[in-house]
Amino acid sequence: MSPILYLKLSCNQMHLSLLPSGRELRLQADPPFSNQRLLVADFSAAQQLLQRGLTELLPKRFLRLSLPPQLLIQPLEYLEGGLSQVEERILLELGLGGGARKVRLHLGAELDNAGVLAKLRS
């Protein structure tokens, strides 16, 4: 079974949770990946931060033996007027480039474990 991850993304910060264990990791970007207009303005910096988070959060046995993780990404900022097609593509590519095999986006209220699982199954 592949690991399930929930990524809440805000300005230069990532909050990554591993389900169902509840293990969490908060990452502060250095260098920053956001600017005044875009949540992910520096794609490479955001991708490196996500990959570092996945390496820290997932046990090495997951990275070697199991399927790549499933990832639900929820942007928490820069949502005025919704996401453009380009912004959606950036977030999906961020997840795939970070090593996830399945990536979904969620806009709305923060989810509990059951909500994350339901979004990834749909």
Description:
With 122 residues, the protein is an alpha/beta fold. Helix content is 35%, strand content 25%. The protein has a single domain (4-121), classed as ATPase, nucleotide binding domain (Nucleotidyltransferase, domain 5, 2-Layer Sandwich), CATH 3.30.420. A 5-stranded mixed beta sheet has the order 3-2-1-4-5, with helices on both faces. Helix 1 crosses helix 3 (85-97). The model has no long low-confidence stretch (mean pLDDT 92).
Under the CATH scheme, the architecture is 2-Layer Sandwich
**Tally of separate helices:** 4
H/E element sequence: EEEHHEHEH
Q: What is the gyration radius calculated from CA atoms? A: 13 Å
Give the biggest beta sheet: 5 strands, mixed
Give the overall pLDDT as a whole number: 92
Q: Using the alpha-carbon principal axes, give the shape.
A: globular
CATH topology: Nucleotidyltransferase, domain 5
**Distance between the first and last residues' Cα:** 17 Å
Output the strand order for the largest sheet: 3-2-1-4-5
Structural class: alpha/beta
Low-confidence stretches at least 5 residues in length (pLDDT < 50)? Answer: none
Total strands: 5
